Amino acid sequence: MKIINANDMKKSITDKGMIDSIEEAFFVYAERNFTMPERLAVKHQEDTMLYMPCITSGSIGTKVLSLIPQNPERGKPLIDGLMILNSREDGTPVALMDGQLLTAMRTGAVGGHAVRHLAYQDSQSIGLIGCGVQGLYQVKYACSERNIKTVYLYNASKKDLTSYIEKIRLETGNPSLKCVICSSARETALNSDIIITATTSKEPVLPNDPDLFQGKCIVAVGSWRPDMREIPEAVWQAADTVYTELPYACEETGDLAQPLKSGALKEHQVRYMAGYLQDIKDGNGEALGSTRFYKSVGMSLFDLVVATNIYRSAEEKGLGTDISW
Amino acid sequence: MKIINANDMKKSITDKGMIDSIEEAFFVYAERNFTMPERLAVKHQEDTMLYMPCITSGSIGTKVLSLIPQNPERGKPLIDGLMILNSREDGTPVALMDGQLLTAMRTGAVGGHAVRHLAYQDSQSIGLIGCGVQGLYQVKYACSERNIKTVYLYNASKKDLTSYIEKIRLETGNPSLKCVICSSARETALNSDIIITATTSKEPVLPNDPDLFQGKCIVAVGSWRPDMREIPEAVWQAADTVYTELPYACEETGDLAQPLKSGALKEHQVRYMAGYLQDIKDGNGEALGSTRFYKSVGMSLFDLVVATNIYRSAEEKGLGTDISW
């Protein structure tokens, strides 16, 4: 069995390779030849274990995450965990990797994949609302797809972003990347060609002003429960269509469930990425509206395909630690 | 994170320590302070992944098993997998061990625990029906609780048992243990003070003759589905009571579900081990009938408590491999 820790995971795969893996996952999704049950949550007292299995014709994988609400106040990450890959042939465990980093990398790459397909080619700036780990990886992968000159940052709690900016420059491999701390979400959105939200908010984090969004690409990854929401209704006035992953997303995230319920968003405006990609492949690509909006809730199929490709790359490059098992 | 492979698992804990762990698990069960959902089975094509999580006030653990029906014909084990332990404090993964061996060891120790409490002190012989991995570990732990002189063996398919007998002598640490291959299940049962069944049979593997069981201790571990059965109805004529783990066992195993349905076994005859142990602790121990029958279906709480103790012992003894994570 191969142990692939965070360092080796990062060395094994390129940013473009990650985004290609997300695209690969969408094509596996389109083929429907997989088993991906709803994630299993096991709660005891305040703590939760989450199990996200997925099996395709080529891979077996399971992400196992812990969610310990008391961790942040102890200076530890809320979510931790690991990803297990089993041999598709005989079921034996073949690889183990950092589940926390995998989540951040694949969520970042899903955002990067949205940028690849939906952002204007000449996009030069990103506005990030929510300066946490997820946001860092959103910026990393968005920067790999467009020639980004400036990143505008806004975090609701006024924490010191000095080391965060260093991390952005390190992760994007661009030590001279211009990073500007904004005093409001409005200022961030106003300045940016690509707007990314990566918060745990229960209320919209952007002003309810359609002019702010017109002609831009918006990627929202924060709301993963029906009671969480980042996006104001004004986005629906600017964007004709929301691109997302799978029908379940319409129930899981407040960013879709709430406007679908209120009628601000109609079902026919929801477009699934797998179908969109298939149409492009078939030569039936559609014209995009001037404002492009992508909402991600994630799925374990992403983890599986990404982890499988990280493992293959680690094998090729001799990364990871082989342990006797 | 510590990787504890099969060799290190065996070195870390004594046979008595394993059986003590099972007893500890029954007391945790009695306290009801745990979360143990039904195991999750995820099937794709013919293959299945099984997830068995459990959380107590002291530990978090998950057994992840693969079940690949084509494996046996390729000379590989049907079931493989691993056990993950997470820190109860902050959720980080702390240990990983061989899930296949853990299953065999803990199932063996559950049988050994039944022998500790239910077998006559002067029991000198074991009859094993079903000479597979599970049977091997049943004999190992039964031998640690009684002064066993002879093991009688019967396997329905007439395979060569030479190397199996070597394994029994190795696992019990008794190179001169007498092992006798029998030509029938009847002969095996007739000669043995303790009868153990560890098969995958769908029909009773013992003759339907109450005289064969009178005054003996019977431990059945094979039937884990309602359509599987090892025990004939005659056992209910010989034994007043069946000892087992938890109410769910009455539904899960054909050995209990079928006679409860036919009326051969009445609900009041089912006794849960946790309650039995608590009564002993409280000084209210009951008189055992002359024939004692234990039926095990297992539970993930056993895996969790056993794995936690293996991990602690490995820490103390410096066993396992610490990996940078």
Keywords:
2 domains, alpha/beta, Rossmann fold, ornithine cyclodeaminase, domain 1, eight-stranded mixed beta sheet, 325 residues, homodimer, 23% strand, eight-stranded parallel beta sheet
Radius of gyration of chain A, in Å, reads 19 Å
Overall helicity of chain A:
25-40%
- Could you tell me which chain pair has the largest interface and how many residues each side has? A-B, 42 and 42 residues
Number of helices of chain A: 11
Instruction: Estimate what percentage of residues of chain A fall within beta strands.
Output: 15-25%
The helix-strand sequence of chain A is EHHEEEEEEHEHEHEHEEHEHHEHEHE
**Number of separate domains of chain A:** 2
Broad CATH class of the largest domain in chain A: Alpha Beta
CATH topology of the largest domain in chain A: Rossmann fold
Oligomer: homodimer
Describe the global form of chain A: globular
Q: What is the CATH H-level superfamily of the largest domain in chain A?
A: NAD(P)-binding Rossmann-like Domain
The CATH architecture of the largest domain in chain A is 3-Layer(aba) Sandwich
Report on the structure:
The structure is a homodimer of 325-residue chains. In chain A, the strands form two sheets. In chain A, strands 1, 2, 3, 4, 5, 6, 7 and 16 form an eight-stranded mixed β-sheet that branches. In chain A, strands 10-9-8-11-12-15-13-14 form an eight-stranded parallel β-sheet, sandwiched between helices. In chain A, strand 8, helix 4 (133-143) and strand 9 (150-154) form a beta-alpha-beta unit. The first copy, chain A, has eleven helices and 16 strands. The model of chain A has no long low-confidence stretch (mean pLDDT 96). The first copy, chain A, has 325 residues and is an alpha/beta fold. In chain A, helix 1 (6-12) packs across helix 11 (300-317), helix 2 (15-31) crosses helix 10 (273-281) and helix 3 (99-118) packs across helix 4. Chains A and B meet through strand 2, strand 3, strand 4, strand 5 and strand 6 of A and strand 2, strand 3, strand 4, strand 5 and strand 6 of B.
